[in-house]
Amino acid sequence: MTALDRALGAFYGLALGDALGMPTQSLSRAEIKARFGEITDLQDAGPDQPIAANMPKGSITDDTEQAILVGQLLIEGEGWIEPAVLAQRLIEWEAGMQAKGSQDLLGPSTKRAIEMILAGHSLEEAGRHGTTNGAAMRITPVGIAADVADPERFIRAVVQACQVTHNTTLGIASAAAVAAVVSAGINGKDLGEALNLGQQIAQQAESHGHWVAGGRIASRISWARSISVDSDKALLADLLYDVIGTSVASQESVVVSFALAQQVAIDEMSAFEALCMAASLGGDTDTIAAILGAMLGASLGLESWPVAMIEQVKAVNDLQLEALVQGLLALR
What we know:
Blueprint: H1 3-21, H2 29-36, H3 62-76, H4 83-99, H5 108-118, H6 123-126, H7 134-137, H8 140-145, H9 151-162, H10 169-186, H11 191-205, H12 217-225, H13 233-244, H14 250-265, H15 271-280, H16 285-300, H17 307-317, H18 322-331
């Protein structure tokens, strides 16, 4: 399997997870069961979807769109992201989405940071409250463009991509964990090794950013990966939803993505089954499934995803990621 195949597996895995979770995002697990049963395929968002009302099946959300935006900035900056430019692009992106009629597309941390920048606060100050999963959801291109084999340089690249909106120990450590799994996968590490590396890099990265209270990302990932349910998928889903949690808090949603990735690493479920469980859990389903899809795709490659579904996501969103992914790999 080539590095290109793994990188495409990561970026299209992110888009597929995002699209599977699109109709269920912000719903409780009980509401998802009542409306959809279990998610096993791409679904339309109904008229009462709180964030994505009436979006057609296969539609991506802000998770994939902001990851593409970060990828484009990395290529323009030859591997580095100028925080001021990222802030400006996010502002323009939100304005463009609102013009199309979409509301509430920026997560709480990103929204707050952008409001602070527009009010004249420094870029350094703007991200000091960002603890949610917004940096982790759009970090995949950094994992493709930067090689985790040089950890210090790698963490610098992650910090640059996080600083504007998520300049905190939790925001940076969770994004670094996800990016490291993607980068390790592209280097040919198997999934278990890649997850180990994600955990290690999270620990190293948490010395960056403003300290905020909350369970440590590396410690919570380590614990979540040790969950053993003897193939009882219903019990696993209960534990993820009730005990870890599926909110936008990075120490919940990002940790759930690692717990599900571990189940794939120990052959308890296939990559696609794990994405479907992520999309069925409740809470921030599109982001959990997007992060999971990126991490799994990097180790397992593009062929781990159903061809027809990837084609449907490409067609619905007019999505062509090949040139972007090749540009990011060239930076590596």
